[in-house]
Amino acid sequence: MKDTRIETKCVQGGYKPGNGEPRQIPIVQSTTFKYATSEDMGKLFDLEASGYFYSRLQNPTCDTVAARICELEGGTAAMLTSSGQAANFFAVFNIASMGDHVVASSAIYGGSYNLFAVTMKRMGINFTFVSPDCTEEELEAAFTPETKAVFGETIANPALKVLDIEKFARAAHAHGVPLIVDNTFATPINCRPFEWGADIVTHSTTKYMDGHGSAVGGCIVDSGKFDWAASGKFPGLCTPDESYHGVNYIERFGKEGAFITKATAQLMRDFGCTQSPQSAFILGLGLESLHVRMQRHCENALAVAKFLKSHPAVEWVKYPDLEGDSDYTLAKKYLPNGSCGVVSFGVKGGRVAAERFMKALKLGAIETHVADARTCCLHPASATHRQMNDEELYAAGVSPDLVRYSCGIENAEDLIEDLNQALSVID
Ligand SMILES: *Cc1c(COP(=O)(O)O)cnc(C)c1O
């Protein structure tokens, strides 16, 4: 059968049950797997045969769901992780060690920024952050001889900046290093970064992919295109791994499989940031409706953004699909079918007014979460960033009046009526 379209992949990708087998992906809730002889198991340890032996490294349910995401992104290999944080940590740490350097967009999720700028810095990996709007020359100037990767988010959380993937990929490849793109907010429904030159894609599957606020998880997908051997900068992938029976990942698994096999064999083995089969099953269910939900999230967000833009109590609105938005041109190029369901805006009256407005909302629940079927919102200045004064907030790219409003898949008119009554409180 010819390759199916993305909607069909959401529903049936990664799992083709045989005669009499379960129609739904089975939950293999087992830590371990049984073998007849030690020799049989030895072959698995030597990566000579493929199979399962311990669910910290691999589990059939997790692999099936990872295969579905792999198909959606158009990659060659994928793995699930315990969270989006673990996915981004593994994606970078798989190819960067003490003394190495990474160029990252400054418009990224706060958790990723902290992971890179604080925790991974303690591991001796240095990051240079560049504005996503930087010129090619400014981007070029951020590289050092130790640079091992470039990192960005397709649509930044919460800044809603759209990454010029081709610009970042060009710079990365000119320096013989891969571009890693966190595609959480766009999802492969709205953008497939590999088609624009990205080499590795990561996800917090906790967001739209699960989509129901039920399971924390992450995923890493390899495009299989980056030539690790030709680059000459990645001995970890191209020379024998003495910690894993002397395997040479590139020789044994090719550029299609080396990255994910190394991340599984080394990082899962040592850090154990594995996803539970139960969570993977929930993620698989979420993926079945991802294409339908994303369309509704985007329709609702555009309607909400247009409403807010016209409301006198609203100071400013940031949504990439809104005509006149600073990222509109990039959004039309990379996200022609819509960007995501998250809209950021500022209410007149700053921090105090924002707090009063949020309290008056009846449908939009106050949560740190985003990208859920149910509408939720956050006022960073009085919640996640409450320890900062106004000056510090601006420096972090979060204005005191900023409200992050994540449109669910409810009726858009209901959301607008709710916003309207809450805004009337501060009018
Ligand atoms: C939430 C988020 C993460 C972190 O994911 P967790 O699943 O919460 O660990 C990483 N990147 C982006 C863009 C996110 O929105």
The CATH homologous superfamily of the largest domain corresponds to: Type I PLP-dependent aspartate aminotransferase-like (Major domain)
Apparent shape: globular
- Strand residue percentage: 5-15%
Report the structural category. Answer: alpha/beta
- Please compute the radius of gyration using only Cα atoms: 22 Å
Question: Would you list the SSEs in sequence order as H and E?
Answer: HHHEHEHEHEHEHEEHHHHHEHEHEEHEH
Count of spatially separate domains? 2
Helix content: 40-55%
List of distinct ligands in this structure: pyridoxal-5'-phosphate
What do you see in this structure?
The structure is a single chain. The chain has 427 residues and is α/β, with parallel strands linked by helices. It has two domains: 31-285, Aspartate Aminotransferase, domain 2 (3-Layer(aba) Sandwich); 291-424, Aspartate Aminotransferase, domain 1, CATH 3.90.1150.10. The chain is 40% helix and 13% strand. The chain has 17 helices and twelve strands. The chain has helices spanning 6-12, 38-45, 60-73, 84-93, 110-122, 136-141, 165-174, 187-190, 228-231, 235-238, 249-271, 277-288, 290-309, 328-334, 350-360, 390-395, 412-424; strands at residues 77-81, 101-105, 126-130, 147-153, 179-182, 200-204, 218-222, 314-318, 342-347, 365-366, 376-378, 402-406. The chain has a seven-stranded mixed beta sheet with strand order 1-7-6-5-4-2-3, sandwiched between helices. The mean pLDDT is 95.
